[in-house]
Amino acid sequence: MWQEDQVLKKAMDEWERVSQDPEVLLAYEARRKALLDEKSALKRAERKGIIKVALGMIQKGIDEETIIELTGLTKEEIQELRRQ
Hints:
The protein is mostly helical. The chain has helices at residues 2-20, 22-59, 64-71, 75-83. It has one domain.
């Protein structure tokens, strides 16, 4: 609990410092946007990989329940992939 309080205090102190300087705030926002963009790109790449794996499993005749279990895709998503 003490560590969580210290982390929160440090974050609040940093935010206070950042919010006082418009130049620092702009840099902070630019970095935040870049990180969000990167996270989004990683999620898209991960999704693309999962779909590729699922398509391979479908082509090999692996049953739907196993594909659902191993990929985390929904039954509807797998059925859509079968129609492609």
